[in-house]
Specification:
143 residues, mainly alpha, 6 helices, elongated
Length: 143
């Protein structure tokens, strides 16, 4: 597995991102063409079914990511309690979930400084937090 960094840390799930979603988009396009050529109730029913499956797939993906974000938040709060001084660990509870998720890539040595900077609003976005990390701590288990 290649070493993870800011530039390559995005997780792609090939079956979903490169097979299922493109296939569903192609089917939606096909049914739209069919409806425009010869409007019929069965084409509309097919289109609605395909859209429902696409939405179901998207909802399942988003729910998995939300559950994983909650686990990451819990893991990081436990890490803060073991790595940071108690005062900073307590102040870190003010971090938003996206900030906590971005900070998970920071090694223990950089964590306190990055949390202080984040709490001081030095970063405009979560990507800026990730860019500020000097020694990337990989996360290969993201779904």
């Amino acid at each position: 597995m290649a070493e993870q960094s800011f530039s390559n840390h995005t997780r792609w799930y090939p079956l979903v991102h490169f097979v299922l979603f493109p296939l569903l988009l192609a089917l939606i396009g096909f049914e739209v063409v069919q409806i425009s050529r010869a409007p019929a109730l069965d084409h509309l029913a097919h289109l609605l079914l395909i859209i429902a499956v696409a939405l179901l797939s998207l909802a399942a993906r988003l729910q998995a990511l939300r559950a994983q974000d909650r686990v990451i938040r819990l893991e990081e709060r436990l890490r803060y309690n073991s790595v940071l001084n108690p005062e900073l660990a307590n102040r870190a509870s003010a971090l938003r979930t996206g900030q906590v998720i971005a900070l998970r890539f920071a090694p223990d040595e950089e964590l306190a400084n990055l949390i202080e900077r984040t709490l001081n609003d030095e970063f405009a976005t979560n990507k800026d937090i990730k860019r500020a990390i000097g020694n990337w701590r990989p996360d290969y288990l993201r779904v």
